[in-house]
Every structure is written in C-alpha cells, then in structure tokens.
Design goal:
- There is one protein chain.
- This protein folds into 2 domains: about 1-50, no CATH class; about 55-110, TTHA1013/TTHA0281-like (2-Layer Sandwich).
- Helix content is about 40%, strand content about 25%.
- The chain has 3 helices and 4 strands.
- The chain has helices at about 10-20, 25-40, 85-100, and strands at about 55-65, 65-70, 75-80, 105-110.
- It has a 4-stranded mixed β-sheet, with helices on one face.
- The radius of gyration is 22 Å and the shape is elongated.
C-alpha cells in the first residue's frame, strides 16, 4: 500500500482525519510505513527488524521417566530421557519445523 498523506505542513489532526477516512488506525499506519520503508532498495542505510517475536508455547510433560515436548504451532512432538536433552532437541529441530510451517520470528516458552 503506497499512501502519501503528510507533508511537513500537515497537522497531527489532519493526518488523523485522513487515516480515519482510510479506515486505518495509527498503529496500522505506522506498521505500513515501516513495511514500505523496509521494502525500499534505494535507502543509504539498513533498518532493524521491527517485527515483534511470536511467543510459542512448548508444553512439557514427564510420564514414566520419559520427557515429552509438544508445540502445536510448529507441529512439534519429541521425547527425551532428561529435561536438558529435551530442551536441546527441541531447540535443534524448531527452526526447521518453523520454516516448514511458515512461522517466522518466534521465541519458545517451555511450560511444565
């Protein structure tokens, strides 16, 4: 979306009214602005990644001496003999599963 609504002489009120007519919240307009800027190839500098990390829950359980980790968002289910081995294994396979499931920019949260 390429929207040009402000100049150096546009007041805050005028900008808010234009956004309202377009059906955009200020938050959405700012996100669109950064998305537009990030996609520009002619900038003499690079922008940091402003996208927020998704926190994915990994449910951990212990049954008859076997630790199990499950994360629905990644389609992840794995087992191990110890909690340390389970977390290592989960962290090892999570990136590949994320790529296969089109999940980007995530952080895992282990819940027992």
């Amino acid at each position: 979306m390429n929207i040009q609504i402000a100049s150096s002489h546009t007041t805050n009120y005028e900008a808010k009214m234009v956004l309202k007519r377009l059906g955009l919240s200020q938050k959405k307009a700012i996100a669109l602005f950064f998305e537009e800027i990030a996609n520009r190839q002619d900038l003499p500098f690079s922008l940091p990644n402003f996208t927020k990390e998704k926190q994915l829950t990994v449910n951990v359980s212990l049954y008859e001496g076997i630790w199990t980790a499950e994360c629905d968002a990644l389609g992840l289910v794995t087992e191990a003999q110890s909690y340390e081995e389970l977390t290592r294994r989960t962290l090892e396979i999570a990136p590949e599963l994320a790529e296969l499931n089109n999940v980007e920019n995530f952080k895992l949260r282990f819940i027992q």
